[in-house]
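Sample pair:
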Amino acid sequence: MFEKALVMYIYAETPIHPGSGTVISGVVDLPIQRERHTEFPMIQGSSLKGVLRNSAEYIGITGKVKVKEGAKEAEKEWIDVIFGEQDRMGGVSVTDARILAFPVRTLKGVFGWVTCPLVLDRYKRDLKLAGIEVDWEIPKPSSDEEAKVCKNSNLTENYVYIEDLQLKCSEDENVNKIAEQIAENLPKDDAYKEVKEKLKKDLVIVSDNVFRDLVLLTTEVVTRIRISSITGTVEEGPWSEEYLPTDTIMYSLILIPSRLNNLKPEEITEKLMTYDGKILQIGGDETIGKGFALIKLAEGG
């Protein structure tokens, strides 16, 4: 069992390609990871844990700590204590990253973020698991033709136009509360000031069906080729790759088990908070600038 949980927010600074390794639909050669039953985008927990471990030394998690192994005391690397060792089970648990808010084109305001009741219901349960209470209820559009928007939204005039959809919209204070709660989990420095202000106004809640269609049909799909350094002609390709677009917001839970090597959860939490506000690389295509994401950690009560 775990004794403490942290919420890890992932904000895409560049498009992210968490490759699935398999072709499900046949439309894209290299698709992203998706949940089997909803087809919502996800990032596997094993991938995220690998990213965190590989980045640990870079962000400053170094050195050794004395831990108890049965009746004996041993000295171990902090990285091994937090993430486990190759020959034994242990360390923190990292859950699959779930989609929280997905960026889409809009007729007004350039773009906005969409989410849906199913996503928000999961999010609320996960926050409760982490000991974070919220004061908002989940607004539910009455049909696939309706959307719930923030008061003072930049995107609407009776209707909101998302991609090729025209949706009737109605304002709801709960959308503002949800948007503000998500925006709070972006850094407080000036670099994210405009993004946070936009998010507080331009979050839209659509039906579960519409959300599924949007995350299926409006990801970035890029066609690539490989050029021979000798002939200067196409050596391989073309092939297509799918990406989560820039400004996608996802989240995962980091679960800290009780009595991890007899260390207090607060000691593990202090080390994990080193990731807070850092930019990490997730998924493939690092050398062409893909996969860079802001990591923000939130601690419950």
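Helices lie at 45-59, 78-83, 117-129, 173-183, 193-201, 208-217, 265-272.
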